[in-house]
Amino acid sequence: MKIGVLSDTHIHLAEEMPQGIVRALSDVDLIVHAGDFVDVAVLEGLKRLGEVKAVHGNMDSMKLRSLLPEKEHLVSGGKKIGIIHGWGGPEGIERKIRARFDDVDIIIYGHSHRARIERIGDVLFFNPGPGFHSFGILTIEEEVKGEIIKI
After folding, report:
1. Which CATH architecture has domain 2-150?
2. pLDDT tens-digit series, residues 66-94
């Protein structure tokens, strides 16, 4: 399973998304967006590329907040994945978001604008960074591999 991961795109139209990201997301099994699209048109544009799981962020419109949850759970390749945007300052964000999920193997998050892949305890934390600078690819097979791709 290959998952394309975005967060903090902060754009109003899907057409504003860098073409390198669009090409990469056209070749994944699932697209995950960890919030701060800003406008529902971006979500709709991603859905034209493939299946999307997403949460809302603090900068998202009221329309997006009504359509998307604050946090999401899914299972992919036998791995339990939590998705959340995050809040507050970047220091200690992993500890705060970890407290929001009981039993997960991976947490995808955003908010801090800091790309990061780090295993803390038994959980892999994956932040693709801001969508105008980077995105991520998670490959879930026997092992989980994460990659941050700079634009």
Report:
1. 4-Layer Sandwich (3.60)
2. 999 999 999 999 999 999 999 999 899 99
